[in-house]
Design a protein that fits this description.
This protein is mainly α. The protein is 53% helix and 0% strand. The protein has a domain of 81 residues. The two termini are 29 Å apart.
């Protein structure tokens, strides 16, 4: 539920672009074509700039964190769990946006190459 809340900024941007007729490119899912052990991933080729969206998500997350603090200080404890959904959602999507690629760089520093760029259930 909180992930859906965190995606609201990105979804709002997409809807506003559609309403105002802003043409934006369809971003395909990157295909890395890593087939053998030792081949390098082309993931860096697909990396793009952050833009303003993560910073808006950060600002909204901080506002909701301040709202949680206010709810606790005024002893309005019933609203805190609901507000925490917003704090966690915006913070999670923001941190993923800002720190994307960090784990990939750290993973390739060890020298061990996997058959797939993001091995799942090996």
């Amino acid at each position: 539920m909180s992930l859906g809340v965190g995606l609201s900024v990105t979804n709002t941007k997409a809807v506003m672009e559609a309403i105002f007729g802003v043409k934006s490119a369809f971003a395909r899912t990157p295909k890395y074509r890593v087939q053998k052990k030792g081949e390098k991933s082309q993931a860096r080729k697909y990396r793009k700039r952050l833009g303003i969206i993560p910073w808006i998500e950060l600002a909204v997350g901080i506002c909701f964190a301040a709202t949680v603090w206010y709810a606790v200080s005024t002893e309005n404890f019933f609203t805190v769990p609901f507000l925490l959904l917003f704090v966690l959602g915006y913070s999670y999507t923001d941190l993923l946006s800002i720190f994307r690629g960090l784990f990939e760089r750290k993973g390739s520093a060890g020298g061990e190459m996997h058959e797939k760029p993001y091995p799942v259930g090996i």
